[in-house]
Write a sequence for this structure.
């Protein structure tokens, strides 16, 4: 089953069609500014990590997952400046605490 996040790369315009099990298409309004791409990585709870997610490390620091155009890869930005690559080690320490679209402080 696909989610809006998983099909974001083919999202065009401000609506998308979600087909249910019967094959019926339901149009759902989507704000493209709130769609994050799946990074291909998982946290310590085996949860998927998306662009825009807030990650906590084992020291309690919280960073945001962002796409880095220069390196063509996902990175974690801590305190707005310190950047770390989002690599496979994140599954040893990272915990998704929410995302930038939640509207609540994490």
């Amino acid at each position: 089953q696909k989610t809006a996040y998983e099909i974001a790369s083919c999202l065009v315009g401000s609506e998308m069609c979600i087909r249910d099990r019967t094959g019926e298409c339901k149009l759902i309004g989507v704000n493209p500014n709130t769609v994050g791409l799946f990074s291909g990585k998982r946290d310590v709870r085996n949860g998927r990590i998306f662009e825009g997610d807030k990650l906590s490390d084992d020291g309690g620091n919280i960073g945001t997952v962002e796409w880095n155009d220069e390196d063509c890869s996902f990175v974690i930005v801590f305190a707005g400046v310190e950047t770390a690559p989002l690599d496979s080690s994140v599954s040893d320490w990272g915990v998704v605490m929410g995302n930038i679209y939640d509207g609540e402080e994490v």
